[in-house]
Amino acid sequence: MTEPASLLPAPVLLAATAPPAAVVAAPAEPAIPAESGTCGKAGLERVADAARRGTVRITTHTAWGAGFLLDDTHVVTHFHVVDRPFNLRVHARDGLSIGAKVVFTDAFERIAVLELEAPIGGKALELATSAPVIGSEVVAIGVPLDFGTREDRFPAHRRGVVADRDDELLSIDALVGMNYTGGPLLDCQGHVVGLLIPPPSGRAVWESPMGHAVPVGKIREARASVGKTPPRSPTNIVLGFASAFAAQFERGRGFVGATLGVPILFLDQLEFLPRFGVFAYVPANSSDIRLPIGRTDTARITGDLRIGYRIPLVSAPASVSLVPSIGAGWNWEYTEEKNYNLVLDNPTCMNQATPCSFRMNENTKESWTHAGALSVGLGVHVHVMTFGYELRVLPSPDVKFIHQVSLGISTF
User: Fold this and answer.
1) What is the pTM of this model?
2) Count of Cβ atoms closer than 10 Å to residue 269 Cβ
3) Domains of the chain
4) pLDDT digits 0-9 by tens, 303-341
């Protein structure tokens, strides 16, 4: 009996198994380069927060500008803002105003460091470790016209890109006007990378197509020099320049002219103003053509010394001061009187057949008069503009009261 053939092995049933789930990895976030060139929303928020807490407004009798907190008691600004530091004040956004003094100015008269009389509200801005590279986005911070009226208002700002740089100067393609002078130039992290300087000469007063700043390295040097290098001693006397168009009214007569003077500022608020003026009489129009015809021309020259006292009213952005004054001087007047009469060439022509001819006879009388003058006045200074009224009294030979109004400019 033969053995049965070997049975084939039973097929092995394999259980169907699901393939392993694919592992889906989250896409990696693109790395942000250190110098991305754009701030983005988050960067602008950091800049806004730094600017609100660290930017201050600085005013003197003659200038105003921006600055930023270096620490609790020191402020950095441009020297142009404080080159005449009478009534120097630093103003925070909460309305607090604190006196200050200049404790450092650099050799190039660009950077000035102020020491506050007391700590001021706010947070000091951090200085960047290095100047920004060309192409980086930056934000220039200045003083807006309504600085301090709304605490949530973003300070005046201009976004731009660094167009050029060297060890002494940064250039940005942003419209930066005089109200940015002394303000910080911030990077996207809210760090100070420069100190804004005034527009170059020859540009418009309020706007320049290219902004400029002192790089942060110079600011670090200034901070390290505070207390080691004595600041430039400010002069006790400040000379200025003042000119005005003026009109005088006296006994129904009107004069127009101009005055020119050299204001001298003493002791913070006392102002001396030696000046000269030239005026010409403006005759009233008249339709009276009756003979004899007369004309009077008068030229008036004035010279006096006015003493005023400045009372600050508004400190920024355009400083406003009220200036009561008294003065004494002298008046010189040159008068030329002309009378015209028609005269017959031949008085007997009326009884003859020949025609009569006439000629104009002119009689001229010249005179010089002079008299002392006393004056009291009230002026209003709005930044560089001046508005003034004066009552001038000439006590002899006969009493005259002259009303004078003026509008002009003054360098302080």
Assistant:
1) 0.60
2) 16
3) 40-225 (2.40.10.120), 237-410 (2.40.160.20)
4) 999 999 988 776 554 567 899 999 999 999 998 887 777
